[in-house]
Amino acid sequence: MTGRERVLNAIRCRETDRIPWVPFVGSHAASLLGIGAEEYFKSAELISEGAQLAIERYKPDGLPVTFDLQIEAEVLGCDVKYSQDNPPAVFGHPLTKGKKLEELWMPQKDEGRIKTVLQAAETIRQKNPDIALYATITGPFTLALHLLGTDIFMKMFEDVDYVKQLIAYCSEVAKKMSEYYIHAGCDIIALVDPMTSQIGPDMFKQFVSPYASEIFEFIRANGAAGSFFVCGHAQQNIEAMRDCKPENISIDENISLEFVKQKCEGMQVSFGGNLQLTTVLLLGSETDSAKDAVRCIDSAGKTGFILAPGCDLPYATPPKNLEAVTKVVQDEYEQQIARNMPDESIKFEDISLPNYQDTQKVTVNVITLDSEACAPCQYMVDAVKAVCGKFGDKVEWQEHKIKTRDGLKVMAALGVQNIPTVCIDGEISFISRIPPKEELEEVIRKKLQKKAESV
After folding, report:
1. What are phi and psi of 407, to 5 degrees?
2. Which of 23, 7, 21 is nearest to 282 (CA)?
3. How far apart are CA 256 and CA 271, in angstroms?
4. Which tens digits make up the pLDDT trace of 254-305?
5. Structural domains of the chain, with CATH
6. Does residue 299 contact residue 249 with C-beta atoms inside 8 Å?
7. ∠ at Cα 174 (169, 175), nearest 5°?
8. Are 193 and 229 in contact (CB under 8 A)?
């Protein structure tokens, strides 16, 4: 059985000879090439060369062309900031700068970096006919947020018709991108919509479900399979995602594989995930990586499951950790060895937090994966930065990225379980939810008032 056959069988809940392995290689490919992420994301040749190196080193059954949720947004006029070790990030939103929705257009396959990734897809497909090729496209809710910014959350209450028109437009963009990628040789279209973790099931069913369902139907009608990618604390939406009828749902470590398996079993929807990105693959050891792969395999079972990271692999992920996963997934003997290995997970013995009541200032800590690489994290940091700036030197804020050991220490000390999360004076205040600016202002104002009264 080829890798392509293995993935396509698993994604449709059919028998496979073993669990398929799909590392989500995006900016990490630039690291393999020894170059910066910006150079990589702008070159079809480098994207295809990076994929080839990943295929040679990690022996995957499937692989994405790349992993970049800013391609459509950039073509449509969003301001984008490039980085040397992350995917690009959106920081300017055309619909907040005078552009009207009716002035937006349907992206063409020769525009911007769409042309770049399609050329890369064709090259990867030609060289690797036995690999399942994934394309990652921006989900309609996330693209709508890129175009409108966090204003979308207020408009979901104040101007429902406008938001629905915007998301309908974004879903047409997703269909067009799917069409381009399928014609370029991609087998699976991954609809990546991380910002849906910021809304609950009722809002999801109103603003996401009708459009995502149409996209997956379009993908099926054009001969490919659809996967619904989500990250963050999105457990509340898994049933709604499943009911959009994708072939597959892919999750990160914020949601247990057992939970998703329970919701998908019997519904002919497969699932994938959820190797831990930072504590294991980025900052852990080969042993940690092998044991985490076995955890996933034992939790998920052997039918309708694809082993994958929880999201886009960080740039600096050590190749040896991914190679350890490859060994485990391909060899049951290696799985037995990994099950009996001692736990080498990161321990934090020097965790300490300041006494937040000893100062008149209010301290806001934002725990993120990385605001330069994760859309929900980026928009949460933007909201905190904007609000804290209004209070001058009375409020200080800091982002703690769990891509670093120091960030993980702060996360553990504060008792944070999900990202992104906002903590105010050491108390968890907003979990995986971008706070409305007025609400965040009110919480901070009350904290300041309480401190002033205690003097």
Report:
1. -65, -40
2. 23
3. 11
4. 899 999 999 998 899 999 999 999 999 999 999 999 999 999 999 999 899 9
5. 3-340 (3.20.20.210), 362-454 (3.40.30.10)
6. no
7. 95
8. yes
